[in-house]
Every structure is written in C-alpha cells, then in structure tokens.
Amino acid sequence: MKNNDFLIISTADWNSPIQTNKQYVSREIAKLGNRVLYVESLGVRKIQIKKKDFFRIFKRIINNLLIIKQKEKNIWVLSPILFPGATNKKIIFINRVIFNFNLFIAMKFLNFKKEYLWTYNPLTSLYLNIAKFKSSIYHAVDAIEHQPFMPKKHIEKQEIILSKKVDKIFVTSKNIINKLKKHNSNITYFGNVCDYDHFSKALTTNTENIPLDIKCINKPIIGFIGSISEYKLNYKLIHNVASSLKEINFVFIGPTDDSLNHSNLNRIKKLKNVYFLGYRKYKSLPSYCAYFDVAWLPLIHNNYTKSMFPMKFFEYLAAGLPVVATDLESIREFNKLVTITDDISKIKISIIKALKNKDFNLKNRLSLAMENTYQKRTKKMLMELN
User: Fold this and answer.
1) Are the C-beta atoms of 349 and 356 separated by less than 8 Å?
2) pTM across the whole model
3) Could you tell me the CA-to-CA distances from 223 to 120, 211, 323, 351 in Å, in that order?
4) 338: which DSSP letter?
5) What are the strands of the beta sheet with 135-140, ordered from one edge?
6) 200-212 pLDDT per residue, tens
7) SS3 state of residue 91
8) Which domains are assigned to the chain?
9) Binning pLDDT at 50, 70 and 90, where does residue 42 land?
C-alpha cells in the first residue's frame, strides 16, 4: 500500500522522551511511500502543577508558531493547542473548533486527502467526523483510562462510541480485545514489536563505545530501560530483589515520573547496588544494553499493566539479552525462551542462572525478535485494510 494519505491522531508528542507505537508505525507507513500527518497529543488528561507539564505547554506554544513541521520524509507534525483534560461540553466544543481549524489549514497546505484516519486517541470522535474518511482505524495500544490523573469514566464512554464508529480496530493486548469486541467485531490482535535493526546494534558495540556513566559500574549488571513510574514498576519487588542480591548491580535508564509518590522509589535509591541514570537519548540505548548482562521487566500488576504488552520485551531480545519478567498475560506465550514469573525466589534464582549462561537460547531469542519488527507488523496491519 502506497501513495495514500494517513492522518494519525496520537497520544504522544513526536519528540517524546520514550518512543512509542505511534512514532514507529508512522515511520513505517511513510517508508512505504505514503504521506503521514501526525497530530501530537490532544491533552487527554488534565495538567498537573508540575514543571514537566508547564514545559510541555510552553514547547507546544512554540511549536504552534508553525502550523505544521516536516520531521522526516513523508511525515509532517501538527501541534494543536487545546485545553487539556476537557470533559465540559463547552470546552470540548471550543477544542473541536480550534483543532479542526488547525487541521483544515494543515491539510489544505499539504493538499492532504481524507483517506485514512489512524487514531490512538479514544476521544477522537469528539473532535472529528470519522465518517468523512475513506477508512478509519482505532489502534488501542494501552488502557490509558487506568493511567494516573486520567478522566476514567469519560474515556471509557468515548472509547465505546469511537469503537462503534471506526471501520477497524487493532489491539496490542488480548485483554483489550475482550473489552472492545462487543462494540466492533472487526478487531485484530497485533502484539507489540521492536526496532530490531536499532537494538541489535548492542551485539556489535565495542567496549570503547560503552557510555562512561555505566562503564564505571561494576558487573554483573541487571538492566531496565523505560519509564520509571510507580503505576508501571513494582518498587517493592525491585527493593526486595536488589537488597537480597547485593553482589549484583541494578541499573535503571529512563525518565522518572514526577507526578506520583516517591517514597517507595526513595527506598530503592538508598541501596548501594542500584543506579538510576535518568533519561538517555534513543540512539544511545543499544550501547547501554551492550553492557547489561540480563534485562529485567519488574512490572506491577494493576488494571493498566493487565492490558499492556511491554515494548521493551522484544527490544531486550533484539539486544541479545536474557530476560526475566513479571508474569503478564501478553508475554506468557514466550515462557520457553525467557523467565516469566511472579515468585520472588524464582526471580532471584533466574537472574543468577541467566548470569551463568547468558548465551542460552540466544539464537532462538534473536530469531523471535527478528520476526517481531515494526516493519513486518505494519505491513500485516496495512494488508488488513485492503
């Protein structure tokens, strides 16, 4: 499929610190010879009195000085300024007018056709007349209604409306299928995948190219890359395991969510064998993975993670790393190649075992990662639209 126009309504800004499905899928669609107009987050949740939120608003205002910006070949980004977290009918109406005015100018400028609407935002039907598009897709990648500070009931109501209106639904979790299939039977499961070409660079990274901030930490190293947040990570589990395995160092790379209680996180930071390196640029992540000995997914069990397929899973495999993970339904089918358990004793034993035999099943792990890439998955999804 090529020479088509795709309007992608995202829930993430293009330059978000953590790359998501939204950016990856947009790139793959564009690489196939289609044009993409990527709409940044429309502000689903209300702003918090936090420096990060005010910085995002300031950046959005600056970005909006130019209605659209070309970021990559065939990809343009629209950054509309709306009232965030709107649930009031009058504010929603104002947001709809502002958004459609911005969108009209952008589409007019690009001579963009209303062919394919591909949305990640469950509130989309509040802002767009979906029926005007040749084809419409709702790509449900997370249960965002269960994220902190989200208007849960508002999202749930609008997601049902959207599901009934779109032509097709893609999901990354079987739990989301169970939630949405009663509203639209044209629904297909595609689990999360990885950028294999990028993360497999860890396999060929030379010692001199290892970043100094991790190179100075003694091995063995158990690593994690992603958002550091209490609604995603099991802080009590991390503290228990790290405090027991004192001869092993634990390294966490990624931005810390500053909107939640940090008391449990602060307990972990007091441990001498735990290091939080903070956010690191995407292009540098393979070089950090190259210095990991084992990758860990210490995810917490809640309504959000129950519908989650961690992108990090295949990224770790692509980097050649043994993986120890919390028992999530989405990755349970791969338990012959990685350790998936909630039992604390088994987690500790599995980490030690993986350290002793890091190359066990390496060929099969890499093969699995190679079969689960954004390039292959996007082509399969586009075939569903024909």
Assistant:
1) no
2) 0.90
3) 30, 14, 10, 11
4) S
5) 68-72, 75-78, 35-39, 5-9, 116-119, 135-140, 168-171, 187-189
6) 999 999 989 999 9
7) helix
8) 5-189 (3.40.50.2000), 196-371 (3.40.50.2000)
9) confident
